[in-house]
Each structure stands twice: as structure tokens, then as C-alpha cells.
Amino acid sequence: MRVKATKDLAQAASLIDYLAKNDAELLMETWNGLISRGPGWRSRAIEGLRALKERHPQVDTSALPQ
User: Fold this and answer.
1) Rounded Cα–Cα distance for residues 41 and 25 (Å)
2) Residue range 14-32: average pLDDT?
3) Sign of CA dihedral 21, 22, 25, 26
4) Do residues 7 and 50 make contact, with C-beta atoms less than 8 angstroms apart?
């Protein structure tokens, strides 16, 4: 399971990095849609963002709420 989580996080990092550089508005819209799905989705999204920042600090996450 850990291998899949690591792979998923790397894929998310790649997508977020691309969108931050090429379509920050779409990235923000997508994030807002995700966190508006309810408290469970919001907490998992924030947890994932923390993990992404920890494992992939080079990824620009400035378009997302800190």
C-alpha cells in the first residue's frame, strides 16, 4: 500500500506542478471543488497537500490555500 501511496503522491505532484505553471486558475478551481465536497474530503485533501509539500518541496503550491 505504501508503494501505491508514494506513486500517487508523485503523480499528484507532477499534475499540480504542471497546472501551477500553466493553468493556476484551473488548479484553484479544482482544489475548491475538492474541499467543498465535505469535511472528510477536505481533511484528506489538506493531509495530502502536507505530504506533498514534505516529499516534493520543489512543487509550487502557492495557488492553493496554505
Assistant:
1) 20
2) 94
3) negative
4) no
Non-local (6+) Cβ contacts of 37 within 8 A are none
How far is CA 53 from each of CA 38, 47, 50, rounded to the nearest angstrom? 23, 10, 5
| 58: Cβ contacts below 8 Å, ≥ 6 apart | 17
pTM: 0.83
pLDDT tens-digit readout, 25-52? 999 999 999 999 999 999 999 999 999 9
**How many residues comprise the chain?**
66
What's at 7, amino acid-wise?
K
